[in-house]
Amino acid sequence: MSVNSSTGFATVIKQNKYMKLFSDLGAIDAEHAISMNNRGIMGHHVFDRMVNRGVFIECERGKFYMDVNAAIRFRELRHKRAIIAAVVGLAIIFVMVGFGHMQI
Question: Against a cut of 0.85, is the pTM above it?
Answer without folding.
Answer: no
